[in-house]
C-alpha cells in the first residue's frame, strides 16, 4: 500500500474510532428510593356503608430501572423492584397483609438534551401481581393480577457524561377485587403516587 493511501486509511479508522468513543450507548440504569403514597380509595364493603373504609399502608421502597434510548429523545424504561409487603386496614384496624410486585414499562420523551437539567415525560402500563395474602385470618383474599396505566414526569441532572441525579414522579393505576370466603365484597384502588430520588449511570 502506498504512503498516501495508507495515511488515508489510518485517518479514516481514527475518525471512526473517535466517533464511536464519543457516542453515548443507548443504555441508562438508575437506582432510586421511592415513596409509595397510596390513594386509599375503595368501594363499599358488602354493598353497604361508606366508601374508602379499606386502606393500604404507604411505604418507601428501593427501585431499579433500565432505560433504552431508541433515539436521543425517545426511550423505553422498565421499572423493577422486589415484592413489597403492605398492611390492610378496615376502618383503621389492621386486618392483614399481602405482597405485591409492580413492574412498569414506560415510553419516554426527553427534552433539552444539551442542558445539564434534562426533563422527561412518560406514559406506559403497570402489571401488578398480589401474593402471600393473609387477610381476616385466612377468610379474605385479593384478586391476583392488576393491569393499569402509568404516567410519569421527571428530570435528570447531569453530574458528568456518565453520572446523573434523578428526580421522578409517577402515578400508577392499581385495582383489586376483595373477597371474603370466595365472595366479592369490595374493590380497592390504591393508585399510588410514587416520588423517587436516585442516581443514574449512562453506559
Summarize the structure.
The protein is mostly beta strands and 203 residues long. Helix content is 10%, strand content 62%. It has one domain (26-202): Porin.
Detail the topology: elements first, then pairings.
Layout: H1 3-22, E1 27-37, E2 41-42, E3 54-56, E4 59-69, E5 74-80, E6 84-90, E7 93-101, E8 104-110, E9 117-135, E10 140-142, E11 145-158, E12 163-172, E13 176-180, E14 183-189, E15 193-202
Antiparallel strand pairs: 1-4, 1-15, 2-14, 3-6, 4-5, 5-8, 6-7, 7-9, 8-9, 9-11, 10-13, 11-12, 12-15, 13-14
Give the helices and strands as they follow along the chain. HEEEEEEEEEEEEEEE
- Portion of residues in beta strands equals over 45%
How many strands? 15
Shape-level CATH architecture: Beta Barrel
- How can the largest sheet be summarized? 8 strands, antiparallel, barrel
Distance between the termini: 38 Å
Number of domains: 1
Query: Helical stretch count?
Result: 1
CATH level-1 class = Mainly Beta
CATH topology: Porin
Cα shape: elongated
Return the average pLDDT rounded to an integer: 88
Kindly provide the radius of gyration, computed on alpha-carbon positions and rounded to a whole number of angstroms: 23 Å
Q: Percent of residues in helical segments?
A: under 10%
Low-confidence stretches: 4-22
Strand arrangement across the biggest beta sheet: 1-4-5-8-9-11-12-15
Based on secondary structure, the structural category is mainly beta
Amino acid at each position: 500500500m502506498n504512503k498516501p493511501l495508507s495515511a488515508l486509511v489510518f485517518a479514516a479508522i481514527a475518525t471512526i474510532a473517535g466517533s464511536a468513543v464519543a457516542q453515548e450507548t443507548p443504555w441508562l440504569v438508575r437506582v432510586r428510593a421511592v415513596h409509595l403514597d397510596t390513594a386509599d380509595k375503595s368501594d363499599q364493603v358488602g354493598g353497604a356503608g361508606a366508601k374508602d373504609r379499606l386502606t393500604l399502608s404507604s411505604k418507601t421502597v428501593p427501585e431499579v430501572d433500565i432505560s433504552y434510548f431508541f433515539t436521543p429523545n425517545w426511550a423505553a424504561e422498565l421499572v423493577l423492584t422486589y415484592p413489597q409487603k403492605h398492611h390492610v386496614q378496615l376502618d383503621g384496624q389492621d386486618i392483614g397483609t399481602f405482597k405485591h410486585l409492580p413492574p412498569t414499562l414506560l415510553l419516554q420523551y426527553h427534552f433539552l438534551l444539551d442542558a445539564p437539567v434534562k426533563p422527561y415525560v412518560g406514559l406506559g402500563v403497570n402489571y401488578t401481581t398480589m401474593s402471600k395474602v393473609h387477610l381476616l385470618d385466612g377468610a379474605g383474599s385479593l384478586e391476583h393480577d392488576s393491569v393499569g396505566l402509568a404516567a410519569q414526569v421527571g428530570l435528570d441532572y447531569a453530574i458528568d457524561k456518565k453520572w446523573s441525579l434523578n428526580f421522578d414522579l409517577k402515578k400508577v393505576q392499581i385495582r383489586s377485587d376483595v373477597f371474603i370466603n370466595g365472595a366479592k365484597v369490595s374493590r380497592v384502588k390504591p393508585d399510588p403516587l410514587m416520588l423517587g430520588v436516585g442516581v443514574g449511570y449512562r453506559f
